[in-house]
Every structure is written in structure tokens, then in C-alpha cells.
Amino acid sequence: MIKKIIMPSGGQTTDRSMVANWLVSVGEEVKRGDTMLEIETDKATLPVESFTKGIVVDILVQKGEFASAGEVLALVGDRNDFEQYRMETNMTARTPASPEQNKEPDDEYQPIMKKQDSTAAPKVQAVENAVRAGEADGLKAMPNAKRFARENKIDLARFAQEHGPGTIKLADLKEHASAVPTVLQPMGETYLDIPKSSMRRTIARRMLESTQNIPAYQVTVEVDMTSCIALRKQVNSLYPNVKVSYNDIILKVLGTAAKMHPDVNASWTEDAIRRYPQVNVGLAVAVEGGLVVPVIKDVGAYSVREIATMTQEKISKAREGKLSPDEMEGGTITLSNLGMYPVQHFTAIINPPEACILALGKTEEKVVVRDGEAVIRPVMTVTATFDHRIIDGASGAQYLTDVKNLLENPGLAVC
Predict the structure, then answer these.
(1) pLDDT value at residue 414
(2) Which of 102, 145, 166, 382 is 20 to 30 Å from the Cα of 237, by its Cα?
(3) CB–CB of 325/339 below 8 Å?
(4) 24 in Cβ contact with 56 (< 8 Å)
(5) pTM listed for this prediction
(6) 75 - beta bridge partners?
(7) In this predicted structure, which of 39-43, 46-50, 234-238, 293-297 has the lowest mean pLDDT?
(8) Greatest mean pLDDT range, 45-54, 91-100, 357-366
(9) How does 352-389 read in b/e, with b if 16+ C-beta sit within 10 Å?
(10) Known catalytic residue: 388?
């Protein structure tokens, strides 16, 4: 029986997504859990896994094409289904494409080599032969990993020797390929051409949209983190099963302050300024090849310990590439923290359709004046970027002042 692989929902803000890349071909076998393709929503690039095992009977939506949620992307069945489908549709049997057949002119997902040094041709041919030889020798590799190896001219036999026994997976090859960029040498010049991943393209599109369409401004304050540090130590001492981070306390503070300033928790629409009843704070998480922003929804409804549990789970899923579209949707404010690096101050770009993003620098010991005396305190710089269409300068300053006051007196936010 033929089963349908359908387009999942892209989230709350869109019903259409683009097929960014197919990782299988017609005629290939897939198992339950194999990644068949990657789709690009307006927020991120997401894998689509097979829910069944069988043979890819047909691919109905091609790379670069858009489809709505629920639309059929591909068909999977057994060998009889495959043969019957071919007979009924007068299809010619298709096998996995060779590198030459699969390559498209000016394909943005492939390194482009307009003119190749003739001395490099034997090397390229040798790699292609090794790829085919590796497949013929019966190396254990997932179907999508074999396809990726063909497309990127990776020697599976050599890869297996270097990485040891076991089934070769797509994630292993992607990590290997990202660590060894292709060196291009047209007309005597040496440079690197790195293929633009779907995630990179999504980030570029959204950041360009933000900078072109949002009249943004920044406000910066310095925060004495003495009380936050003490609170974190106290909570982690009393409840050792859940390790609370500074981010968890700050997320709680941002939600509390946003409730006091509803203009910050809003979006600009064509007809109105839309305020949201819940404060949903997104946390920017660096992952291989870019970043994603999982969202803690209705952050004010949870304790710091509950927030810590949720953030740990979402960060783990983000780094494993397992976040669902819903977990990245609905954000109203974003937090970006580079405090783990020696970064004192930076400005972040608003994540549309939100109206505010906060950027945190490193906490450093500084000399400050308290009651007329110079003392050393741990100080963190916080810079907020606001959408001026919604939040005027005074309103932004008032919000950031309350963020500062709550961080310096965190008991007011967590009680």
C-alpha cells in the first residue's frame, strides 16, 4: 500500500514552506526515522523524516518549490507498489542519479566551478571512482548518506577507515564536509566557495528583512549582577536537581518587565499595533551552521526552576536539530547572550515580527560608586534594540530601566 509523505505545518505564521533539499531519490529504500528531505519555513530549516519503511515511489514536489501544509510531497511503498505505479504512469525506472546527472547549473547548494584547472581533473575522477568503489564494497551507509557522498564526492571507504566501523549516517558526513571546504582555483586565484545552506539563507533573508523594514534604535544600561549571582547560588544549592543559569533568571525578568510595558510585547501589522497577552521569550541558540530561536511561551507563568528545565530541554533539542516548528513560533521578545565570550557590548538585530531584542555582554568586575565609596562589583552590559514604529525612546528607556532594577533586585521578579 502506497503511503503519502506530506508537508508538515510550518508554524503559526505561515502555511507554506519550501522544499530546500531532497536527501533521497526515486527508487531508494528508506526506513522509519530516515530523513527524506529538508524544508525551509520563514523561521528555520527543518528535517522531514519518513514515518514508514519502503521504497520511494515518486517525488511530487521538487527542490525549490513551495507546498502548503498537508500537501503530498512524496510516495513510499513496497516493491510491488513501485512497479505498479511505474506501469500505470508510464514511468521509466529511475535509479539514484550520478553526480553529473544530479548537478544543476549555478546550483546555489553546490560549489560553483566555472573553470577548473586541468591538473585537478584526475583527482576529481579518482574521488568519484573511490565513491563508487566504496558503495560497491558493501559499506554500511544510510541511503541519504550515500546520496550526500555522491553529491559531495566523499570517499566512503576512506571515511569508514578514518572513523571506524558502524553505519555511516548523514550527520557524520555533513560534519566531515563542513570541516573540509572545497578549494577552488579558477584563473590562478585561490579562495574558498562555501555552499549556502538552507539555514544560512533563511537567516540572511530574515535579517535583511529586519534591517530594511524596521526603523530600529538601541538603548544600553549597565547592571550590577551581585544579587543575581547570589540568587542563582541559593536556588542551585536548595534544588540541586535543576541547575538554574543566569539566562533563566533573565528570561523571567524580561517577562515580568514586559508585563509592565505592553508596547514592548507587540508587533507592527498593516492595520494596527498588535499587543499580546502572553510574553513569549525566544532564546537565541548557536548551532552548527547558524542559530535557532526556541521560544519559552508565557514565561511569566513559570518559576525560575521551571524555566531552567524548559530551556535545558529546548537547547538540547536545538543542538540535535530536533526542534519542531511550534517550538520556534510565537516569540514576542528575543534574548541573545554572548556573555560566555569576552564581549563587553553588542547590538542585536530584531527578529521580525517582534519589536524588541536584548543583547547581553560578559559580566566583568568593575569599579562603581556606592554610597559615595568606590567598590568592585560584577557588572553586565545590556543593550536593547527597539522598533521605533511601536516603542518611542522614552518607552524603551523605561522598559530597560525596569529590566535593570529587576536584575539588581531579582526577588521582585521571581516572587
Answers:
(1) 72
(2) 382
(3) no
(4) yes
(5) 0.66
(6) 4, 58
(7) 39-43
(8) 357-366
(9) bbbbbbbbbbbbeeeeeeeeeeeeebebbbbbbbbbee
(10) yes
Three-state DSSP class for residue 140? coil
* CATH class of this structure's domain 3-89: mainly beta
> What is the band of 395 on the pLDDT scale with cuts at 50, 70, 90?
very high
User: pLDDT by residue (tens digit) across 153-180?
Assistant: 787 777 777 776 677 877 777 777 766 5
Answer whether 406's CB lies under 8 Å from 256's CB.
yes
Alpha-carbon gap, residue 132 to 322, rounded angstroms: 32
- Flag whether pLDDT at 65 surpasses 80: yes
Q: Which fold has domain 199-413?
A: Chloramphenicol Acetyltransferase (3.30.559)
Instruction: Give the pLDDT confidence of 247-262 residue by residue, as tens digits.
Output: 999 999 999 999 999 9
Residues 6+ apart with CB under 8 A from 259: 265, 279, 300
Q: How far is CA 371 from CA 230, 342, 368, 375, in A?
A: 21, 30, 10, 10
Q: Are 293 and 243 in contact (CB under 8 A)?
A: no
Domain boundaries, the chain: 3-89, 199-413
- Stretch 394-412: mean pLDDT: 96
Q: What are the percentages of helix, strand and coil residues in the chain, rounded to 5?
A: 35, 25, 40
Omega cis (within 30) before 353: yes
The residues with which 267 forms a beta bridge, in sequence order, are 274
Amino acid at the residue 146:
K
